[in-house]
Design a protein that fits this description.
seven-stranded antiparallel sheet; 7 helices
Length: 564
Amino acid sequence: MQNIIDKYGEARRLPLKCQLCEGDPAADATVLCEQCEIFYCDACREGCHPMRGPLAKHNLLEPGAGKAVMRVKSKWKESQCAEHEDEALSLYCLVCKVPVCASCLHDTRHHSHDVQAINAMCKAQKKELSQHLQQLSEKARSTTEFIQRLKSMTEKLNENCVEFEATVSAKFDKLVEAIVNRKKQLLEYVRQDRDVKQRTLKDQVTSCTCRLQHTTALLQFCIEALKETDSAAFLQVGSMLIARVGSTDMTWHKDSVTSPRLSPHLDLTLDDKPLLKAIEQLNFIQMKPCFDGEGRPLEAPGPPTIIAEECSAENNGVTLSWQPPHSSYVEGYVLELDDGNGGDFREVYCGTETVCTVDGLHFNSTYNARVKAFNNTGEGEYSDLIGLQTAEVAWFTLDPCLSHPDIAFSADQCTITCEGYEHRVALGSVGFSRGVHYWEFSIDKYDSDTDPSFGIARLDVCKHQMLGKDDKGWSMYIDKQRSWLMHDNAHGGRCEGGIQAGSTVGVLLDLDRHQLSFYVNEELQGGVAFHDLFGVFYPAISINRGVTVTLHTAIEAPSDSEEM
């Protein structure tokens, strides 16, 4: 260490300082006393080391030469044993790890210790140090290369960032283009819906005009008849006119529509919430290699294993269970189902659970399911497919949450009554958009002055009026003697045959043919009632006071339905 300090001072030509100066900083030394081994400045030499008396024989050297002499003396002292001044350090004690002389071996401290020649030991340690230095030098070289690689990665990072920014901008341009195209499609759909409603209103205007013309003609003829002064002549047509006017008056509300078949408002609402949510959740997926707790790079997980014996289907829902992939780190799973008809797969679940139940599927359909795992590295492969068959016939109840609050339900939610005079609507607990479905209502109690209405409806049907009054319901209302069909407050399809306590009314919804039919006491009531039914429909019924009905489901469709 002293050699390093001396070399540092010589390289920078730092002057040697007086060792006796009390000031700070000390003055530069001008001489070195070889015997005292002290550096003096001129002032301290005059005061502390006068050249007289015994000190006159001391040899004074200039500082540079004195430093060389001191270095030689120091090396000589280091080579001499501190315990035995006349003995040189010629051995090395391997136990105490210190240099010793030959006399030290007779002392108690080093007696019986293993020793080695000091030159051989010095050579061995220099060799060991050289080996360690070589290893350390190799690490330093590797670190230098690593630093260079990091610097080159910085440049590459900038290039990749520019390229990735261009990719992101291009993808956002495509998203904007897709939204613009979808906007054009939806606006065209709005115009088409407007045109359809305009044609409907025009047809209704034509129908009402024709009916009004016939009625006006009848009124004018009757007024002219009333002007007849000849009693005999009037009586020849009087009875006929009275009957015709009375018949027209009685059938006016059924044959004529006194309210518009549709509203001037578009029954459309732009469902933009999922898109807005998707935009808010739009983010980058971390695809760079990640590491586990032991520092090993993670890989995408393998495919999960579906546990077939734990998978099941009940009514219009399926339950799936799977095992995590073997020896893979997993952060979550994605479950996908097709449309039950061999179509495209869609995501129905994303989470950490290994069991999932999916409800609200189509009846009498086979759904294929698959699942994959994912972690920060990416997504793994899909599992093997599994097919699950939903129930062939629907089992459901009437849903109090979807029905008018004035309706009273039994404990099993299959029997309903209503105490009010106004019709109130009740809906079933499931909706249908595909397949053939049949259900029945048994008439438990019936008063002859009421006409319950049976059929189907959209989920947003008006529930405080008779089923079929608006364009969200399709129904058959029936009394003790006959029945009528009604949709959007348009009456028609009068058919003889009524109901009483103990009767049954069946509803056949055939969405394969997109039509609706009714049965009374297991007999077809007037053929196919409604056509061109597309979308999701819920079983529906509207009742008022004086009637109690019970719903029966999971029934096979009538055999004659295949012939329609």
